[in-house]
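Much of what follows relies on a compact textual record of a protein's fold. Here is one such record, which you should read through line by line:
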Amino acid sequence: MLTIGELASYAGVTVRAVRHYHAKGLLPEPERDHSGYRRYGPGTVVELIKIRTLAEAGVPLARVRELLQADPEEFAAAVADIDKRLQAEIRQRQLHRERIARLAAGDSLALPSEVVEFLDQLRALGVDERIIQVERDGWIPLAARTPERVPELMARKREQITHPPLIDFYRTLSQALDRTDNDPMLTELVDKVADYLTQLADDQGEDYVGGAIEPSLVDLLDTLALDTAPPTRRLIELLNKRGWTGWTKLERVAPTA
C-alpha cells in the first residue's frame, strides 16, 4: 500500500494535486489506516496517471470525470478527438514559431519567400533602401489579406523587373526622394517618371501599369507609402500635373495645372 507522497511520486504529480483531484471528485479518497494515514493501492497510480495525462492535454476536469466513467469504446473515441485537437494546436504553434523566427529576419517578417527574393533583387540593382521599404511595407498587408494572389502578382513583378526602363524608374524614384520641392532636378526626374509610365501604358495597357490590387487595399498601401517615405507625397502631386495619379494603383488622368 502507498502513502499519498508515494502515490504522487509514482504518478508524477504533487501531493497538492492529489488532494485537488480528491476535492473535485476525480480520485476517490481511501479509508485511513489505524495511524490516520491514507493508503493507496497500485491501481490508484494508474487512475491518477490517466487524470494527469488528460488534464495536461487541456481536457477540462469536468470532462475528465466523464471520461473516467466512460466505457472503453467511448474513451477511445474521446481520446482520438483529443489527439486531433492537439495535432491542430501543434500545427498552429509551429506556424507561430515560424512567424516569431521571422522577426529577426528583416524582410522575412510576414512575407512569402518570393517577395523577399524580389526585394533582394531590387537591392542588387542598387535601388534606394527607402523605396525597398515602401515596397516591403506594402507587401506585408497584401500578403496577409490575399495570400493566394501573391504568386500571380509576383510573376508580374518578376517580369517587369527584367525591363531596363523599369529599373531606371526605380532608380529615378530613389534620386527624387533626395530633392527639395524647389529643386529643378526634381522636375526633370518627375518628367522622366511620367514619360516612362506613359510609354509603358501605351505599350502594355493601363492595367499593367496600375496593377491589379483590390480597391479596399489601395488606400491602406498608399498611406503606408506616404508614412514610410514622406517625399513620395510631393512626387504624387507633381505626377498628377503630368497626367498620373495614385501610388499603389497608378491611373492616367487629365493633367492638372
Summary: The CA atoms of residues 1 and 207 lie 82 Å apart.
